[in-house]
Amino acid sequence: MSDATYVNFETRPAAAWGAVLSMTLCVALLIASEFMPVSLLTPMAQGLGATEGQTGQAISISGLFAVLASLMITTIAGRLNRKWVLVGLTALMLVSLVLVAIAPNFTVLMVARAALGICVGGFWALATSVIMRLVPERDVPRALSLMFGGQAMAAAFAAPLGSYLGGMLGWREVFWLLTPVVAVNLVWHVLALPSLPARGGQSLAALTGLLRRPYFRRGLAAAMLSWGSAFTMFTYLRPFLEQVTGVDVTVLSVLLLVLGLAGFAGTWAAGRIDGSRVAPLLMLPALVMGVDTLALLLVGGSVLAVGVLLAIWGAMNTGMSVIWMTWMSRNAGDAPEAAGSLMVAAIQVSILLGAVVGGVLLDRLSITATFLGSGMLAAAAILLIGNGQRLLRRAA
Is 40 in a helix, a strand, or coil? Predict the structure, then answer.
């Protein structure tokens, strides 16, 4: 990004923190909606007459459409005001939740999840570039941390509440309960987001131009491996806790709450990083979460040990998003929407493949094989990242 653009950010009369908070709530709702099947995997599979591995593909199908939406959103939206694009995506999320709640069969569920994938991909492709327009450059890491606090919020409360309320009321009712909150967020967007005129349409040249940068290609690959490792494990965490740890719904909800609450610590810590010194931190998520996943296989029979490991995993999971998006804003700030599209596509491909590969390993082998696969992906990410210097723009 040019120095002139940064000056424009700095001379805004005030940072639009109300709009940042509105996006924070949207993040929480998107994460809750996208990954709610994790906490409801078993009852959803039973209710739809499918296996747990098949139902896990409800996450992978949303990931597939998120990839397509992330690459196409700014081209399709053209010169539409980005405020109204975000409002439209939030409205589509509301429609998706209603379709999931009334889904009579697996096919309708997949259609609803595809619609949600469009919301996820479109929102995340624009999110970082919008944040960069809402606050001065010096406040971007803080604003990203605040926005990703929505991820911690969802991780803290959505999964445990989902599993608990799903046991009490039924899994369909859990999705119904999300709909009024999304409606409130829709209105908040309209009131809080300032006008955000498009700054030129995204072209294929902008995407390919970034992909021609060696450091950016390495960063995308490393991010894919990091997220792929995380979601090969996380998508099938409930079967692990039920089969290996032997927990009931109540203990499951408590463990998911521990994982989620720890996310606030990860977001808080990541929000205080110096964006100019992000390189050494890039390897940290894959290292900590990979070791954590393998440790779960060793001490999975102890509820206390599992709780400690899930707390560590949850803190690093939310920190990972802030770390990588800070890397993106610092090393591709001259093309933030194109970079956001590619980053979101890479991450969603990883989530998709993680859910697919993890599900196949679970159905054909065991939950142990699923977690070992996660650890192998983390090891590959660590080897690629190294000290992080080759992922910086000056190293290109």
Answer: coil
Q: What DSSP character marks residue 195?
A: P
Rounded distance, CA 244 to CA 255, Å?
Answer: 14
Give the pTM.
0.68
Which domain does 58 fall in, by range?
3-395
**CB atoms closer than 10 angstroms to residue 348:** 29
Q: Helix, strand, coil shares of the chain as percentages rounded to 5?
A: 85, 0, 15
Instruction: State the pLDDT at residue 95.
Output: 94
C-alpha 28: how far from chain center = 10
Contact, 76 vs 199, CB < 8 A? no
How far apart, in whole angstroms, are the C-alpha atoms of residue 114 and residue 69?
A: 10
Cβ–Cβ under 8 Å, residues 166 and 158: no
Identify which of 105, 72, 104 has the alpha carbon closest to the alpha carbon of residue 89. Answer: 72
How far is the C-alpha of 329 from the C-alpha of 6, rounded, in Å? Answer: 12
Please, what is the angle between helix 303-331 and helix 140-169, to 10°? 140
Query: Poorest-confidence range of 82-86, 255-259, 307-311?
Result: 255-259
Domain of residue 146, CATH code:
1.20.1250.20
Looking at the structure of the chain, the number of domains it has is: 1
